[in-house]
Amino acid sequence: MGRALAIIGVIAVLGGGAAIGYAVTRKATTGMSPAQTAAMTRAVDQLESDIQTARTAVQVRANTLSSVPTVQLATATDPDSVEGDIVHGDIPLRPKDGEILELGRIYKVDVAASQDRPAVKAGTVETMTLQPPGAMHKAHDGKIGSYAELVGDQIVITEVVKVDPGPGQTANTSTGFLGVTRPLPLAPAIKSLVDAGISGKFVVDGKETPIGAMPEGAVTREQLLRSQSGAKIVAAEPPPRAVLPLPVLIAGIGGAVIGLLLLVIGMMGKRDDGDAAAAARSRAFNAQPTRSPTMAQGAGIGSAETQLSHPSVAAGTPSSLDPLSGPQIVPQNLGPGAMIGRWEVVRRLGSGGMADVYLAQARGDGGFEKLVAIKVMHSHLARTQRAVDHFLDEARLAARIQHPNVVAIQDLGKIGNDYVIVMEYVEGVDLERLLMSARQGERPVPLEIGLGILCRICDGLDAAHNATAPDGSPLGIVHRDVKSANVLVSRQGSVKVVDFGIAKAATQVHHTVAGETKGTPSMMAPEQRVGEQVDVRADVYSVAAVGYELVTGHGVNLDLAALAHLGVDNWPHLPLPSSLRASLPHELDEILLQAMAFERDRRPANCATFEASVQAVMKANNLIASDKDIARWIDSELRHLSPAFGGLPSSMIKSPAV
After folding, report:
1. Where are any strands of DSSP class E within 279-366?
2. Are strands 409-415 and 369-377 parallel, antiparallel or unpaired?
3. How crowded is residue 326: how many other Cβ atoms within 10 Å of its Cβ?
4. 0.85 exceeded by the pTM?
5. CA 384, 386, 388: angle at the middle one, nearest 5?
6. Rounded CA separation 572/62 (Å)
7. Residue 105's beta-bridge partner residues?
8. Span 202-215, pLDDT tens digits
9. Residues 86-119: pLDDT tens digits?
10. Residue of 555, 528, 530 whose CA lies nearest to 541
11. Is there a contact between 389 and 513 (Cβ–Cβ < 8 Å)?
């Protein structure tokens, strides 16, 4: 025993000494630390997103306002009349928070003096109104285009559009223009960089604003912003610094001290062991009994203790109750038979921008098998905290929603360096493919089936909107990407809402930045499209758009940016449902179009209220759809499903969205 301790002590002393030597001889390093590099990457990525979002918002706003008839007429009147009409609300040029609106005209010909005004030369730029009064002129003399300027610690985003003259007006003397400007504060990005120890400056077209205090004569590195020409971050490279890895140094000192103690104890134990062995040999010699060789062998075998390993159903395999575990995932090796934790891969279902999804099965005693869908986050995204927060938020939010019309989250964890979400597997197809196939084959969805599916979607969303945290507080979930592609319909007729990947909640780790636009523009509520705060009425809007597709068989594209030239009058710009399908009850016209109203206050307060209106129509017209009825319709549609829309049952499986 003493010899063993002495050997262990020598090894520990040598190992500790090596660790100490490694720690104190580390060379000085240059450049940014990994944490600083990551912070700079996050700041650039966030700015890229913010600039693009702000640019989209001002473009939509400018196109929408310039199509209003009273704004068009204003370019042919005098500035005093325009100001009066704005005060009385006849011209809707009221700026939102931080916004600047500038309406003006550019004279194309010389205009002689009159009793009311002096002569004007061609090329003169005249501002009709600047809102709010006294704001900066940012319309760039009416030159049509998109602009981004650095003003102090803000990037000012401007969109200048042409304003066509109103009906009955001529464009012979002047051309109208409208400028919409919104500031984009740089303070959050600057703070995140300063907190990471980064100093430098933001540069936009030669203008700059500081990030902390740039050291004199510092070596710098540049990071260009793809979303804006001439914009970049210039950061100072930190001076060379010696790196003393304290954990290694402390571990080395501790190992050396422990090794010395073991060496001393071992040397003392070795001497004691020698004395005890000598005494034992003496006692054995004096008191040894007489016995035959056979007896001696039997006694030796009988005195040996037999050690049995504990029985296990499947040695080395975690039970289904264990946390996620297993070797690091290698995506290129995840073919059939590969393991993701305790699940065996059957096949890959699909891939998206955030993750890959696999069909897998868990096996147990007695031939037990259970199929699941496993979402494996792309490994390169797992190195970005914002992406990880986004991925984990999806699972945390969806896991709080317990409802048969929402795909269930069964597990969440980390295997090696990879994040995975284990989800309920739905053997079926997404609603988008069913509708596209039915539309191509000119097979209208039976009205009771379409309304039945619509009500089940509303049920699932209402459960999400009313989900609570463990302490009972409301989570405030808004899906924000309701569309037919995110609705799964199983072969048994169940309807399930999926993909809470961009859901908004009051308690989520990853917060959407103000002005950030996420979702599918063609199905998106106007307030969401321009980056404003949303509530459950944004989901009401989108589910009504899905309902329109279900009952009419026609696709919906309500992208505000694409339709801004039509204005908000008669929104949504869709034909009456009953005009597209004569058998539809006329009550559905008002129910569906009201739920897609431009102003959110005109829509139903929530999905439950909207569903109640739909159910009233179903009851009045004796329209009933059970899960079995929906299953029969799906079975019929799958027989027609073209390979262009996902193929027949052997390849029709749709995983939860990636």
Report:
1. 339-340, 343-351, 355-363
2. unpaired
3. 18
4. no
5. 70
6. 19
7. 126, 176
8. 888 889 899 888 88
9. 888 888 898 887 899 999 999 888 888 877 678 8
10. 528
11. no
